[in-house]
């Protein structure tokens, strides 16, 4: 309730109810104009868009998916995606790929989502990536737009995004809060973090577009940059012209396809990291794998996982990666392979600066190993 003091008179007003009445009044007036019959909106209808609420349109677009089959994920996927650790791993058609286009790139209460895309793997006669998009035509339709978005985020799927935990999902929560709509709970996987684990030391910039271009070799011909999304939507509100708006809608579907492609590559790397055709930071991944094995010690950790982790660490050590060499030498000593351990201690001594604390530790370890080799033979 708002209390306004005017000439010693207290006026009680419910701001929410007043705003709701204003919104409903604007809806009635706009409906009299028959907005959906404008030439610009007919262009959207010709492209497969159809009304699904007040000032909200929807369309479905189908792509060939980057996946070969609808299989369950490998157990080691949780090394890169901790959100999947300790649960029954989903199949590919249990994922919901999610991306937003908004009126601002910094978040905040004034930022509105005007375009949302959801991709699902449909397993009919053949696999398809079906992308459903929702387009907001003007601010008064935001309530219906959000309800459509939340109908997808219903908890039946594991949501997959790129930086969506920090941005997209927060935008949705903020706008729902301002529209008095409850947000359902859902499991959320953010591919930004596994991408950084695999490629940060290779390409530095781990934005989705960089990963697609430099790791996956995906090129987007005539793509409209996502940074232009706010400008394009505001231009549409002002002029009603849909030419550039169609471009940002296509960019939105490309984001979903790119998101599915990144997940496909991550799965491929996890399934066979030693012989993967994709480049990634072997040392960093090997150390994450080793940490995963230690954490899963009391769980059902099969021998294949252990062997793959050891092979990956050894491969990194053979490539003279300092941390991998140091840890591999330690593991070999712990397992009683003293000659192998001494070999990699000597390699590590050349990799670490003589002034570093690691160099001193390695010298002590070398002395200890030489005594053990002499004693045990």
Sum up the structure in keywords.
377 residues, alpha+beta, Nucleotidyltransferase, domain 5, Serine Threonine Protein Phosphatase 5, Tetratricopeptide repeat, 3 domains, 7-stranded mixed sheet, two-stranded antiparallel ribbon, 14 helices, 9 strands, 50% helix, elongated, disordered N terminus
What does this protein structure show overall?
This protein has 377 residues and is an alpha+beta fold. It has a seven-stranded mixed beta sheet, with helices on both faces. Helices cover 50% and strands 15% of the residues. A hairpin with a 3-residue loop joins strand 6 (113-123) and strand 7. The protein is elongated and about 90 Å long. Helix 6 (192-203) crosses helix 7, helix 7 crosses helix 9 (243-271) and helix 13 (338-351) packs antiparallel against helix 14 (357-376). The chain folds into three domains: 1-33; 36-271, Ribonuclease H-like superfamily/Ribonuclease H (Nucleotidyltransferase, domain 5); 282-376, Serine Threonine Protein Phosphatase 5, Tetratricopeptide repeat (Alpha Horseshoe).
Tell me the layout of helices and strands.
Blueprint: E1 2-6, E2 9-13, H1 15-33, H2 39-46, E3 50-51, E4 56-63, H3 77-80, E5 95-102, E6 113-123, E7 127-136, H4 142-152, E8 158-161, H5 168-178, E9 188-190, H6 192-203, H7 208-214, H8 229-239, H9 243-271, H10 282-295, H11 303-318, H12 322-334, H13 338-351, H14 357-376
């Amino acid at each position: 309730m708002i209390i306004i003091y005017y000439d010693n008179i207290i006026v009680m007003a419910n701001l929410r109810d007043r705003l709701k009445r204003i919104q409903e009044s604007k809806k009635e007036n706009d409906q009299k104009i028959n907005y959906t019959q404008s030439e610009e909106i007919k262009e959207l209808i010709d492209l497969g868009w159809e009304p699904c609420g007040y000032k909200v349109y929807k369309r479905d677009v189908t792509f060939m998916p980057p996946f070969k089959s609808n299989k369950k994920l490998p157990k080691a996927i949780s090394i890169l995606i901790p959100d999947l650790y300790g649960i029954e791993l989903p199949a590919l058609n249990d994922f919901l790929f999610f991306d937003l286009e908004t009126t601002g790139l910094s978040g905040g209460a004034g930022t509105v989502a005007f375009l949302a895309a959801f991709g699902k793997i449909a397993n009919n006669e053949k696999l398809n990536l079906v992308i459903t998009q929702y387009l907001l035509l003007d601010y008064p339709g935001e309530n219906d737009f959000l309800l459509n978005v939340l109908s997808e985020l219903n908890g039946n799927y594991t949501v997959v995004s790129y930086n969506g935990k920090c941005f997209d999902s927060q935008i949705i929560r903020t706008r729902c809060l301002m529209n008095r709509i409850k947000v359902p709970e859902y499991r959320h996987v953010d591919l930004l973090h596994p991408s950084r684990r695999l490629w940060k030391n290779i390409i530095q910039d781990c934005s989705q577009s960089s990963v697609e271009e430099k790791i996956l070799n995906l090129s987007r011909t005539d793509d409209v940059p996502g940074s232009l999304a706010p400008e394009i939507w505001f231009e549409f509100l002002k002029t009603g012209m849909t030419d550039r708006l169609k471009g940002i809608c296509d960019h939105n579907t490309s984001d979903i396809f790119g998101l599915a492609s990144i997940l496909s590559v991550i799965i491929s790397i996890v399934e066979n990291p030693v012989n993967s055709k994709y480049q990634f930071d072997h040392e960093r991944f090997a150390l994450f794998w080793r940490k995963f094995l230690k954490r899963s010690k009391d769980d059902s950790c099969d021998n294949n996982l252990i062997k793959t982790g050891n092979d990956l660490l050894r491969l990194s050590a053979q490539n003279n990666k300092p941390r991998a060499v140091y840890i591999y030498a330690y593991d070999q000593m712990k397992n009683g392979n003293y000659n192998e351990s001494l070999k990699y201690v000597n390699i590590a001594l050349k990799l670490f600066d003589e002034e570093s604390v690691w160099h001193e530790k390695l010298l002590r370890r070398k002395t200890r190993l030489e005594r053990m080799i002499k004693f045990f033979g």
